[in-house]
Write a structure and sequence with these properties.
Largest sheet: 7 strands, parallel
Strand order of the largest sheet: 3-2-1-4-5-6-11
GO molecular function: dTDP-glucose 4,6-dehydratase activity
Catalytic activity: dTDP-alpha-D-glucose = dTDP-4-dehydro-6-deoxy-alpha-D-glucose + H2O
CATH class of one domain: Alpha Beta
Order of helices and strands: EHEEHEHHEHEEHEEEHEEHEHHHH
Radius of gyration: 19 Å
Oligomer: single chain
Bound molecules: thymidine-5'-diphosphate
Protein name: dTDP-glucose 4,6-dehydratase
CATH architecture of one domain: 3-Layer(aba) Sandwich
Strand content: 15-25%
CATH topology of one domain: Rossmann fold
Helix content: 40-55%
Shape: globular
Pfam family, one: GDP_Man_Dehyd
EC number: 4.2.1.46
Structural class: alpha/beta
CATH superfamily of one domain: NAD(P)-binding Rossmann-like Domain
């Protein structure tokens, strides 16, 4: 099957979030002639500051809106002559999905379906950014292939798996041109400090304990966001419609090793690591085979150890970015998520009935 036509006018949903903002920066650098409309609800994790230095670029504009608002998405696409929607918008933190799961279904499932509806109405191509978590816990010795069954185990992973199924169904049923990437644990600049790597890095820089869940021997394929963005670009330029592509380094390290590298890189005391109560339903291992993306000419630029060290260094050099975040809503979230863990009470945090934030 021939590759899809090269996109010129992109609507990037979640373009002020972590991977989305890195992608916008990367795409405009590599394709300065193209036009990018960032469509973002600007939630706690979607911040204008994530695109610092790019505002004013002639190829970039911002529409503030919710992906679940069909009229608003349609309007943004029509006004800008969009030919491709790239969907990064999602509630993405597993621990928040345990505290308040409904927000995850609203945005990740219904929101994705609204984007599919708009793409169908206007005849647009859609690329959906998904995660290796949809494959569930992978036993030692095995790797998820793109055709492996989906077996999500957290509310977050279940919402992403549901969205992946909808994207596939719209391709089969309506012939919509779609592609999906499933990324490994991604690390790098502008990741909200609630996630493990920026949390451990910023705690290390503040001399606070690093809360390592359970025995810390869970394995993750920590992948640098630059490699992830390049993987998505490869699929946008050379991927085949209706296909899924895994994006990762193809190698895993334990969370214990990740914490050790962070402390070593930042000159922190290894004694800051605290083993705390585990996450309920915590998947032990994610591991993907990434040969299908390699076959399109992509290679990861670094393995998980270097990805972790590079990311940690960014937090050391960019306190201006994370210090205000850690001073805001983050504090009450941190108390809710960690106070009982760090004081030795191994219970599960109380549910948050107000939603995901
Ligand atoms: P995270 O960044 O939340 O990504 P995900 O859960 O989507 O994989 O967590 C990465 C790993 O680090 C995961 O195995 C959970 C673990 N973790 C901790 O040990 N302590 C923490 O405080 C957090 C947030 C995560």
């Amino acid at each position: 099957m021939p590759a899809l036509p090269s996109p010129r006018r992109l609507l990037v949903t979640g373009g002020c979030g972590f991977i989305g903002s890195n992608f916008v920066r990367f795409w405009l650098h590599r394709h300065p002639e193209s036009r990018v409309v960032v469509y973002d609800r600007l939630t706690y994790a979607g911040r204008r500051e994530n695109l610092t230095g790019l505002w004013g670029h002639p190829g970039l504009s911002l529409v503030v809106g919710d992906i679940a608002d069909q009229a608003a998405v349609r309007g943004a696409c029509q006004e800008n002559g969009t030919d491709l929607i790239v969907n990064f918008a999602a509630e993405s933190h597993v621990d928040r999905s345990i505290l308040g799961p409904l927000a995850f279904t609203d945005t990740n499932v219904r929101g994705t379906q609204v984007l599919l509806e708009v793409a169908r109405e206007l005849g647009l191509r859609l690329h959906h950014v998904s995660t290796d978590e949809v494959y569930g816990d992978i036993p030692e010795g095995r790797r998820s292939e793109e055709t492996s069954p989906l077996s999500p185990r957290s509310p977050y992973a279940a919402s992403k798996a549901a969205a992946d199924h909808l994207v596939g169904a719209y391709h089969v049923t309506y012939g919509l041109p779609v592609t999906i990437t499933r990324g490994a644990n991604t690390v790098g600049p502008y990741q909200h400090p609630e996630k493990a790597l920026p949390l451990f890095s910023t705690n290390a820089l503040l001399g606070e304990p690093l809360p390592l869940y359970g025995d810390g021997l869970q394995r993750r394929d920590y992948t640098h966001v630059g490699d992830h963005c390049r993987g998505i670009e490869t699929v946008l330029l050379r991927g085949e419609s209706g296909q899924v592509y895994n994006v990762g380094t193809g190698e895993e390290i334990t969370n214990r090793e990740m914490a050790r590298i962070v402390l070593e890189t930042l000159g922190g005391n290894q004694g800051l690591v605290r083993h705390v109560a585990d996450r309920p339903g915590h998947d032990r291992r994610y591991a993907m085979n990434v040969d299908k993306l390699r076959a399109l000419g992509w290679e990861p630029g670094c393995g998980p150890r270097e990805a972790v060290a590079r990311a940690a260094r960014w937090y050391a050099a960019n306190r201006w970015w994370w210090e205000p975040i850690r001073g805001g809503e983050f504090r009450s979230y941190y108390r809710r998520q960690y106070a009982h863990r760090l004081t030795g009470d191994a219970g599960v945090p109380s549910p948050d009935v107000s939603g995901g934030e």
